[in-house]
Amino acid sequence: SSGINAEWPLRPGALHFLTKMKVLVVKDIERDEIDFVSRTLGCRPIATADHMLPEHLGQADLVEEIHVGGGNKVVSITGCQSNAKTCSILVQGSNKLLADEAERSIHDALCVIRCLVKNKNMIAGGGAPEIELSIQLAQYAATLSGVESHCIKAFADALEIIPFTLAENAGLPPINIVTELRNRHAQGEAMAGINVKKCCITNITEENVLQPLLVSISAITLASETVRSILKIDDIVNTSR
User: Fold this and answer.
1) How much of the chain, in percent, has pLDDT values that exceed 90?
2) How far is CA 57 from the centre of its chain?
3) CA separation for the pair 2, 60 (Å, rounded)
4) Are 150 and 172 in contact (CB under 8 A)?
5) Contact, 26 vs 4, CB < 8 A?
6) Which long-range contacts (CB under 8 A, 24 or more apart) does 82-85 make?
7) How many CB atoms lie within 10 A of CB 210?
8) Which region among 4-13, 76-85, 183-192 has the lowest average model confidence (pLDDT)?
9) What DSSP string describes 17-74?
10) Mutual angle of helices 174-186 and 161-169, in 10-degree steps
């Protein structure tokens, strides 16, 4: 019960002898998949048969080829003997566009989980923290004068883009929603947010709509750093060939 993952094509003669020895050969594997399988099984990629040593090999209880519908097949490896805690998620769709969109959604969800592992603090969603921060910054900007006041006010206005975009993506009138959201926060309802399901402004924490704090911190930090980098550009030189 052995198997070989081949990144390069094998000659028919080699395949014949491997088949006689009941060795499973998996061909045409991407490089990143080889690295993933190697880490999972605790083995090492080798280039020649001379390097096929026991310490370079990995072990698993079962390696089988299964059908997943539509004439497609995948190789399933279960019962890995190594301590690597890994798994694979099979994404299927009626076309490549849907499959790619599902893959992006899963990637975003995994990034959120990673943020929760790093920082377990949660805040309200639905644009509530952004609009509250926008109001607080606008009030602080009113106490200042000069360039600092204009910069802080512009930063506060930019934060309203997040609830504006959220309302727009939900098919709601963004100007009306953001205006109502701003008024509710001005009245002291700090947890008021955009309820996409009910198409209105509600106490978003009562709907259990929460998001990791690290996601908002990272988004605002990266956006601020990008703006600072752009502002440092004095001139653009166009080169023609």
Assistant:
1) 32
2) 32
3) 10
4) no
5) yes
6) 82/40, 82/41, 82/42, 82/58, 83/42, 84/39, 84/40, 84/41, 84/42
7) 13
8) 4-13
9) HHHHTTEEEE-S--HHHHHHHHHHHT----SSGGG--GGG---EEEEEEEEEETTEEE
10) 130
Question: 3-state SS string over 102-159?
Answer: HHHHHHHHHHHHHHHHHCCCEEECCCHHHHHHHHHHHHHHHCCCCHHHHHHHHHHHHH
- Residues in the chain, total: 241
The per-residue pLDDT for range 142-171, each reduced to its tens digit, is: 998 888 899 899 999 999 999 999 999 989
Structure tokens at 101: 């969109």
Q: Please report the sign of the dihedral spanned by the C-alpha atoms of residue 213, residue 218, residue 224, residue 225.
A: positive
